[in-house]
Amino acid sequence: MAAHASQRRFGREHRAPRKPGYGPQAGLMKHRELRFSLRSYERIDEASRFLTAQGNITVTGRRGRALAIEYSLTEHSFRSIERLLDENGFHTDTGLVMRIVRSLLHFCEDTQLRNLRQPERLIKKSNEIYVKAWQHHPHGDHDDTPTELRDYR
User: Fold this and answer.
1) What H or E segment, with its residue span, contains residue 68?
2) Can you tell me whether residue 4 is helix, strand or coil?
3) Which pLDDT tens digit goes with each residue over 103-126?
4) How many Cα neighbours within 13 Å face the side chain of 77?
5) pTM of the prediction?
């Protein structure tokens, strides 16, 4: 039971509260939760206005010392938003769990961006590889077993 409770507690720390219509975040629109440190707690409203002024970042809510944000991965990444906040004096939570969660988010978004930059593969031509390989294999009945052993009597 304790593992289940900790899973619930830590599972919500990196995600923005779900609204109806929010699905898995496999697409380019990301819904995240930014947790601020205790020393930036008083400046959360200022941080909210700052993020909104940046363009293409929507602040959808506030809960405690966290802001729920939405952004498109084509415009921003979680890493760039954190860097922008840090450069302007807003400090995010640096607890161990949040550092791990942020590292995972950075890795996932970096991987998704890297995959988006890759040229699209031509899937229709992939069968040509198998056709050429099949042409080099011997066809027909090439069983070396003598015919008298293959016939059933």
Assistant:
1) strand 66-72
2) helix
3) 999 999 999 999 888 877 666 667
4) 16
5) 0.62
